[in-house]
Design goal:
The protein is mainly alpha-helical and about 250 residues long. The protein contains eight helices and two strands. It folds into two domains: about 110 residues, no CATH class; about 110 residues, no CATH class.
């Protein structure tokens, strides 16, 4: 089997995995963070679990990208930089500033599933960017390139901002509170909204099949969790804003 066929099968496998995960998560919320509960086997400290789970998105991606024939070309380098800006923060900065001693531990099962996905996803995206996708000067004239980069930057900014709001509320030591202001006025999970927009933008900019599969998987993973978060807020707080939606302002 040649690599192109292998990657095609891998991507279809990720599509199937994402679809099944979405269906499962609509019924059974992923057991980490505020939804952690017993019955899922051995656990790891939350901060360590997050770093281990996300690390292949940096390590596997970087090594695989560096081995590609187009690794030093301008556009692949731009796309790789976008990827690493997100994942270096997500892997090494986010867990350190977010998870404190005493946080609920994460089931090892969740860590293994996340680790495996990031190995496959990091490899596939890196291979397409520096090996299989061929970018030319004509790509610099594509509107989708600039629209995608702008969407990525917007989504990244929203995600960082929303994480900061939630982190500051946690630092107050008053337990869970209703986040307010900005996109929290209209939706319960602007952090998830931002991440989905981010990876749709990445897919538009790169035109990579792996990036589109990743965007789809991100929706499959985060949309059900946003729904679960939204229901959790409404059940926990009697004064939770009734007009606020879960993920898409004014719609859902």
């Amino acid at each position: 089997m040649d690599e192109t066929t292998f990657l095609r099968l891998l991507l279809w496998g990720l599509v199937a995995y994402g679809t099944l995960a979405a269906l499962a998560l609509l019924v059974l919320p992923a057991p980490y963070g505020r939804h952690t509960r017993e019955g899922f086997g051995p656990t790891m400290p939350a901060r360590t679990a997050w770093i281990v789970m996300e690390s292949p998105a940096v390590v596997v991606f970087t090594v695989t990208y560096a081995l590609g024939a187009h690794a030093t070309e301008p556009l692949p380098l731009v796309f790789a930089t976008l990827w690493l800006v997100h994942y270096v923060h997500r892997t090494f900065v986010y867990p350190v500033v977010t998870y404190r001693p005493g946080e609920r531990p994460t089931p090892l099962l969740v860590v293994l599933l996340g680790f495996s996905f990031n190995v496959a996803n990091g490899y596939a995206n890196a291979r397409y960017l520096s090996g299989l996708c061929s970018y030319t000067a004509a790509d610099l004239l594509r509107p989708s390139l600039y629209a995608g980069v702008l969407l990525f930057a917007f989504g990244f900014s929203v995600n960082r901002w929303a994480d900061g709001v939630l982190r500051r509320l946690k630092a107050e030591g008053k337990g869970y509170q209703i986040p307010r202001g900005g996109l929290f006025t209209w939706i319960s999970c602007p952090n998830y909204f931002g991440e989905i927009v981010e990876w749709i933008g990445f897919a538009l900019a790169t035109r990579s099949p792996a990036a589109w599969v990743f965007a789809y998987f991100t929706i499959c993973n985060l949309a059900p969790r946003a729904r679960t978060h939204h229901r959790w807020y409404r059940e926990r707080f009697e004064d939770y804003p009734k007009a606020r939606r879960a993920l898409i302002p004014g719609l859902w």
